Amino acid sequence: MSRSSLVLALLLLSCGKTDAPKKRRKRQSVSVRSPKEYQHKVKAFFKRMKHGELGKAVVVFHKSLQGKLPLPKLQKLWGDVQKSAGDYKGVTSIVKKRWAHYVVYTVRCAFTKRPWEFVLTFNHKGEMIDLVNRPVPKGHP
Known about the structure:
alpha+beta
């Protein structure tokens, strides 16, 4: 093999992939309690809301949510929802999704005037860290 052929072969080899294959990171396991337990907390939360036991409903709140949504604000929120949607009838569906080490529940509730959705997010300790509510758009089942 001539010297120029050898140089050409080495150049061609060096133009290929130069990076070593990347190692995949191992996923860190996070201990998440049984989703059944969280669903129980979701149902208990709405049961307490239905019976006007808002003081007991906030026991699942993380301290950050207690600061954002203290009892007077929660009472106002629930009153505003009932003003718009009517009297609370019950939970019609619960959809669970995992996102990182959070468990997010979308809870659809029946009211006398119109359905309403609540999105409840729990941390890995089973504490509610966020609560969002919204009316279900008309035409959605």
